[in-house]
Amino acid sequence: EADIYQTPRYLVIGTGKKITLECSQTMGHDKMYWYQQDPGMELHLIHYSYGVNSTEKGDLSSESTVSRIRTEHFPLTLESARPSHTSQYLCASGGRQGGTTEAFFGQGTRLTVV
Amino acid sequence: GQQVMQIPQYQHVQEGEDFTTYCNSSTTLSNIQWYKQRPGGHPVFLIQLVKSGEVKKQKRLTFQFGEAKKNSSLHITATQTTDVGTYFCAGWGSGGYQKVTFGTGTKLQVIP
What we know:
A: 0% helix; B: Immunoglobulin-like; 0% helix
């Protein structure tokens, strides 16, 4: 079992609230990713990082932000939640810079914005 | 940017029938990976292919990487109900800061 953790697993929150989804890995991976996925559908890359102080926006336009102050921690923040943000958010990590190892996924956070 | 498409999007098969999903990239890939996501779960790594024309087998699963390194396939022989899930390919681009792009996925349903 991979050592990558997401909290919370489930979250119901009101419109306009600010939320932070946590993701931590203990494998020392440089690369970390955030995906948004509706049940059984495509994985949409929203942010990624190749290491500390490195963050990039993914292919899906998102109103979220990320930070990478420590190798093991890659939190995702929504400044003002909207019903359109309702989805599952998956964090993944994989390998070191220059390598292409497998991606390990966390269990996901299922977010509902009411 | 790099796009990775999979067909079919959905497939229903009778238990015991074979199943194939195809993955096509808009650009040449340095390698390709396959993942399986069970209903309600998260994607789990199955295999990685690196060489042009490479074929790998895992029990009833056969994975192939195209000669041009732009396409791949996953074939399951004699499907079982445990094969149910969504299968994603994931392609790594070339260059210094490589990025992985997941395919659109194929959802497999196996009818007992």
